[in-house]
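Fold it.
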Amino acid sequence: MERRRDAVLTVSAPEEFPKAFADAWHSRDGHRIGALFAEDADFVNVTGLWWRNRAAISKAHDYALKSFFGNTTLKPGVTTTRQLGPDHAVVQCRFTLTGQTAPDGTTANTRQTILTFVLQNTPDGWQAVAAQNTDVVPGKETHVNTGDLTAVDYRDT
């Protein structure tokens, strides 16, 4: 499934990518996450931080995995794969994150996110060229900014 070549981790099939991402997460080494991405890949996190290459993706994940995500478990769930020809695919996976450390040092509640990966088949296997992570906020439709960004549901009004 996952193999290492010159500090690049690739997977043999697009649908295996979420598990490879979670395995890299559990290593607590952000460079293993970065190794799943192309050198010029993009990654947008849940707050809109945009990392524009493998080095930035690796550095950001390494910091998080050694601090507030240091005790987390990331579990892949429902996954869809859409082939965009023989060499490209979009993979979306709902992940469950537990064990995040809150700013006050307590353990935060469980979160769910949906990660979207755009993958390219390379001579070394499938790599991400782009990814976007979106928090799932049950029962909400959008965010509104009234000084603080808040998830809201207009259906109740």
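The two ends are 49 Å apart (CA to CA).
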